[in-house]
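[scheduler] slot 2 assigned
[scheduler] job type: sequence-to-structure, two independent chains
[scheduler] chain ordering preserved from manifest
[runner] begin chain α
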Amino acid sequence: MIDSFWRALAYCLHPKVVLLSLLPLILMAVIVTGLGALYWDLAVSSVRNWMELSPVLGWGSTWLERMGLLNLKAVLAPLIIIVAVTPVVMIMSLLAVSLMMTPTLVTMVGSRRFPELALKRGGSIWQGLVWTLMSVILAMGALILTLPLWWVPPLAMVLPALIWGWLTYRVMTYDVLADHASKQERLELMRRYRFPLLGMGVLTGAMGAAPSLVWASGALFAAAFVILIPIAVWIYTLVFVFSALWYVHFLLAALSDMRSEPASFQTDTDTPLRDTIEVESKVLRT
């Protein structure tokens, strides 16, 4: 993990990687900035109206006024919008990097470090899309179900990082191994390195919390919000580019090591491991 971490950092400075990172950045910046310019004021006013009509939030606003915290009351609506929008922006950034950059990064690292690694193509584009879609749906469901627990301070930090870590681990692992590994090899690597891969996802998910500070700054400094949105999106993009490179270096090295083992998974089919062992046992008995 440490070796792959430093290699990923070094590759982030490669001119080709820097240029490639501009593609999802431009796409995300245009989408987020456009939606913000069109609907930000409407969203803020709608949330403020909802806060005034809500008995609990209305009581909270009255309490803030009595305590002399009118400035804090003014930023509550923008902060609520930021909390709601941040997961969507993170998922969009992850998908943009996954679709627009990860295949190129896999090819670049594979040709440089592992030119002898055979391509078994255990995944297809459509299977990858279905896998990613199902992973996103499960992650969003987990976010919605755990929202009440976010009021507990420790869980508010732990739960989002775990959910983002799981989603990043699922999406990146499939994308990295789609061409190089067979289905059987991919599942075995996910089984062997489940906790390291999840840990890598949690770390990068925690790194993804940094742009939230920029979003919060935008709520506090509304005049600079249009400038701060692209900066936040750029940080999201860099985090997921680094994440993709980290997974590429780690998984291709793990695949190469596994194939060099005496009893490694060197099968060109998607036959389950149990069936393969049964066939080998019959051959030995014969």
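[runner] end chain α
[runner] begin chain β
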Amino acid sequence: MSADDRRIEGEGTPEADWQNTGELEALPLISPEALVASHQQAVIVAPHPDDETLGFAGLMLQLAAAGHHLHLIAVTDGTASHTGSTHWSAERLARQRPIESERALSILGCEGQTTLERLGLPDTAVAHHEAALFEHLAAQLTADHVVLTTWRGDGHPDHEATGRACARACEATGAHLIEIPIWTWHWAAPRDSRVPWTRARRLPLDADMLARKEAAIQAHESQLSVDPDTGQAPILPGHVLARLMRPYEVFFIDEPQGAHD
């Protein structure tokens, strides 16, 4: 799969295109208990300090409500989101974005049941540290862990490197892997053969869950407004959020050993 075929440019595939086919609503349903059983512990591995909210907020709040402990690993501090900005300098983002992530956890009601681990790897360069990330994960995972992370084919290099490291660590330890598409919805299209639809499952979110997810996303304020210094558009404009605020979350469940997407 070539990254050139998965460009994150412009406004991407409109949410209306995704909805008009009805294929997402036809994906097989899955429950939080089927994703993370009562004896398992969820480990959320987020490339940047908002990916857990964008991708897993609905699942996280359901797991917390069921009494699960969550372990959140922030791979980077998201310091490269506003290149060249004096308002959102890398130093300010290193302070701000972890705070936003913690606020989002509080809004979801997960903060009391979540431990946070920040690795501080360089934003946009996770691939250069992929081996170290794999070793770090493999040292702490067991067969009773479920690793929730970004899909290896998501189109963003940090998302893909994080997904690959998680997949290798799960294969080495027997942990279960669940991946989520985030930027996939931007470059892909309905029935896109590059997307592993046979692995896709849909977790429904009721109105309250969806409202809490939306409120948690709003905690990531640095990503939601125009940069007053450079004029850069929001990292998460409305057309991006529309694809991530559906009344369900889509997961790619673990694939048989030896298969690759």
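[runner] end chain β
[qc] chain β: The mean pLDDT is 94.
[scheduler] slot 2 released
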